[in-house]
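ok trying again, last paste got cut off:
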Amino acid sequence: QVQLVESGGDLVQPGGSLRLSCAAAGFTASRYAMRWYRQAPGKERELVAFISSTGGSTNYADSVKGRFTISRDNAKNTLYLQMNSLKPEDTAVYYCNANHPGNLLLNYWGQGTQVTVSS
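nice, full thing came through this time. structure:
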């Protein structure tokens, strides 16, 4: 059974840090590019960060560049998002996504984890 399970979301004060994790199961995650998306209330889901299957290539939304770092541990089938200098506008549900580069039908989503940045 294919699963992506996010964890690590929490309530944090502005300027604080969180690390999100996404555990993959039921497929060979090391063959998949992975992404973090987020969706704030009343807004569309937006791409936050991308990492290639090997981890050799990453990319970020302008709004998080220099503050967020995406990484992966293929031995543990786990994706991470280190979030520093958090702002209230980072408040959203964060989702991880796995996509096979050679087959667009192989596209999986987690259930999301809530991040709230507030004093």
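cool. The chain has a mean pLDDT of 96. The longest strand covers residues 92-100.
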